[in-house]
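Table S5 (text form). Sequence records supplied for joint modeling of the two-component complex.
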Amino acid sequence: MHRVKVRVAEGALDANDTIARANRADFDRAGVSVVNLMSAPGSGKTSLLERVLALGLGDLRAGILEGDVQGRLAQLHVPVTQLNTGGGFGGECHLDANMVRSALDDIPLDDLDLLIVENVGNLVCPAEFRIGEDARIMVASVAEGADKPLKYPLMFRACELVIVNKVDLLPYVDFDLEHFAHHLEAVHPGVAWMPVSARSGEGVAELAAWLAGVPERARAVAGAGA
Amino acid sequence: MHRVKVRVAEGALDANDTIARANRADFDRAGVSVVNLMSAPGSGKTSLLERVLALGLGDLRAGILEGDVQGRLAQLHVPVTQLNTGGGFGGECHLDANMVRSALDDIPLDDLDLLIVENVGNLVCPAEFRIGEDARIMVASVAEGADKPLKYPLMFRACELVIVNKVDLLPYVDFDLEHFAHHLEAVHPGVAWMPVSARSGEGVAELAAWLAGVPERARAVAGAGA
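The corresponding C-alpha cell record, covering 452 residues in total, follows.
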C-alpha cells in the first residue's frame, strides 16, 4: 500500500472510532442493542434476516438498518431504515460510523430493543469500521469455499459469531465443515459458529436465540466494566 | 457520501486513469493483452482459472497477476505474480492501476501474450478502477442469487463478459437463469454471458475460446481507432 493512502486510512479510522462512540452513547440512552451483520455479497444475509424475523426474537422489538446496496427488506413487519441506495459512486463498499449516524434520526430507537444493521456485502473493508455495535456476526456460505477464514482473516476475527449458511448445499459443493472449523479456529480461536440454512430453516431458531441474548450479554459486559 | 470523501475519490480516480494509460502503453509495447477478472469473494475465479489454464489457450502464452488476497495459484504451469498478500490494512478491497504498475517489473511480459489479472473479490470498488486492461470479465455464481445485476449494476456494466459460474448447483438453489439474464439485460443490454461450472467442466472450453480471442479483438479495436 502507498504511503499517502495509509495516512488517509489511519485518519479515517480515528474519526470513525470517535463517531462510533457517539453512536454507542445514543444507542445506550435509548436502551438499544446493536448487531452488525457482515458477509460477502450473495452469502444470504437478507434471506436469513427474513427467516429469523418471521420466527421472532421472543419479547425483543427488533428493527433493521439496511446498509447493503438496494436492499429488499422493506416488506417485513419490523421497522426498516434504508441507507446506501447505490447512487453516485456506485454505492459504498462498507458502512462507517458516520453513515450510521446520518440515519439515526430516521430509526425509531425508542421503539426498539435490538437494531440489526445489514452491512454491505464485502469481505475486506467492513472489518475496519466499527459503527457503535454490541456484537458482530459474519455470515459465510458453504458455496464460497472452506478457505475463506484464511483468505479474509480480519473479517473472521472481527466478529463474535460466525454463521455457516446454505448448509442445505453441503452434499453438492466441495466444502468440508471440519476444514472450515479448523481454519476458523486458526484465525479466531474459540469464536462461536453455527451451521444454518435460510432455505431449509436448519439453525434459524439457534440464530434467533443467539440474537435474543445480545442485550443481556451487552448488559453483562457493561456491568463488568462499571 | 460526504463531500470530502467525494473529492478524494474523484482525485484518486483521475490519478488512476493516468496510471492505467501508462500500464496500457507498457502492455502494448510488450504485445500483451490483459483481462481483468472480477467477482464477489467465493464465486470461483481461482478454480475457474485453474480449469481454463489446464485446458490451455491455444497458441497463447498466458500469465497470471494474482491480485486477490492470499491466492493459491502458485502451483500452475504458467507464470504467476502475486500482489496484495494481505498485510497491514487487511488487504486491499480492489486493485488499482498503481498496484498493477508496481508489479510490472516482476511480470515476464516479453514471454506472454495474455495476462489475466485476478482482482480482489468485491462487487463495488473494482468497477471504478481501470488497470490498463483490454477486457473485463465479471464472474457471478448461481449460489449468490439472480438479483445480483440489480444490486451491483456498476460491476455488471463494467465488463465485456459475464460468467454465470457453479451451474452444477442449479438444481439445488433458487436461481432462475432466465431471471438473471433478464436483470443483466436491464443493466447492461447486449453483454455476452455464458453458463460455466469449474466443477463439472461445463462451459470451460467456451471460456477458454473467449479468452483466446481477446488479443485479436483488441487488435481490431486498436486498428479501428487508428
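Note: Chain A touches chain B through 49 residues (CB under 8 Å).
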